[in-house]
């Protein structure tokens, strides 16, 4: 089981559980996570959602073998179902991040309400390095949360950055030891779960509603570019280079 779902004390926990592949997310895993968010919305006993990764890694991002097959990213594509569900969740979403958080492993955090990260956390947004473009409305939300130049550095150069930078950028609430992060995030999720659900729902909606349409539109706009670029030779070269454990060579492309 690459995704483990657990319900306890009003918290639905989604654990990425593919540690041998650093919790890289396949289409099937996006679908399971999208379905879990759908169930969480319907189930009145679920008061908060927690996302975490097993094996000391949050997520290595989208599975690159899946990317090699250039998925179409039509409206019902599992990744888009997941992004729509997490970005429109009415219930509070908490993330516990340890180890690598690559690509969607970082961009999904922009849709969470509370993000706790271990000192081992390493964030990166290597979309351009892979011949792609940002996704999950990160081209809209990261400049907003972090300021344009800080967002541009992370989204254009794609270099990894640590938890202190992420704190400074504003999308991580608190840094702590790796051994503490899962338990602390669960404790915070349980606190949320004990609060009046309707107050949480309306408060969250008040904070997010002004940007909601823009976010939804940007997810789709990015996905159009993304799907086209997945088929382009630059991305093919980047994926092959990763699996051949070498540096990509983009010099032959204009
Ligand atoms: N898709 C598919 N497989 C992946 C993967 C991904 N995104 N990320 C890691 N893996 C696989 C590796 O191929 C390797 O498989 P193998 O043992 O069969 O060779 C295994 O997971 C372990 O990865 P490895 O690179 O050896 O681990 P590491 O600790 O040295 O580095 C990362 C971890 C996450 C920094 C590194 O794996 C990485 O950069 N992955 C690619 C991330 C990426 O570009 N994601 C897409 C973002 S849009």
UniProtKB/TrEMBL annotation:
Coiled-coil stretches noted in the UniProt entry, renumbered to this chain: none
MF term (GO), any: delta(3)-delta(2)-enoyl-CoA isomerase activity
Keywords annotated in UniProt: Isomerase, Peroxisome
Primary subcellular site in the record, as a coarse category: other
Compartments, as annotated in UniProt: Peroxisome
Pfam families hit by this protein: ECH_1 (PF00378)
PANTHER family xrefs: ENOYL-COA DELTA ISOMERASE 2 (PTHR43684:SF1), PTHR43684
Entry similarity comment: Belongs to the enoyl-CoA hydratase/isomerase family.
Protein name: Enoyl-CoA hydratase
Native source organism of the sequence: Caballeronia humi
């Amino acid at each position: 089981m690459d995704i483990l779902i657990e319900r306890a004390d009003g918290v639905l926990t989604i654990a990425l559980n593919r540690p041998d592949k650093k919790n890289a997310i396949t289409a099937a895993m996006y679908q399971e996570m999208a379905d879990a968010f759908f169930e969480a919305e319907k189930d009145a006993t679920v008061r908060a959602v927690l996302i975490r990764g097993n094996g000391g890694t949050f997520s290595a991002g989208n599975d690159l073998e899946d990317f090699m097959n250039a998925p179409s990213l039509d409206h019902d594509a599992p990744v888009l179902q997941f992004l729509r569900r997490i970005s429109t969740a009415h219930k509070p979403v908490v993330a516990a991040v340890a180890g690598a958080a690559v690509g969607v492993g970082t961009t999904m955090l922009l849709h969470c309400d509370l993000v706790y990260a271990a000192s081992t956390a390493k964030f990166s947004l290597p979309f351009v390095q892979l011949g792609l473009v940002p996704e999950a409305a990160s081209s809209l939300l990261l400049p907003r949360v972090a300021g344009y130049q800080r967002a541009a550095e992370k989204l254009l150069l794609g270099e990894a950055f640590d938890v202190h930078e992420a704190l400074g950028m504003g999308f991580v609430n608190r840094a702590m030891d790796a051994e503490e992060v899962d338990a602390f995030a669960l404790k915070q999720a349980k606190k949320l779960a004990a609060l009046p659900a309707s107050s949480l729902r309306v408060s969250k909606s008040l904070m997010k509603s002004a940007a909601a349409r823009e976010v939804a539109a940007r997810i789709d706009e990015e996905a159009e570019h993304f799907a086209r670029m997945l088929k382009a030779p630059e991305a093919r070269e980047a994926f092959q280079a990763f699996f051949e454990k070498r540096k990509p060579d983009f010099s032959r492309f204009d």
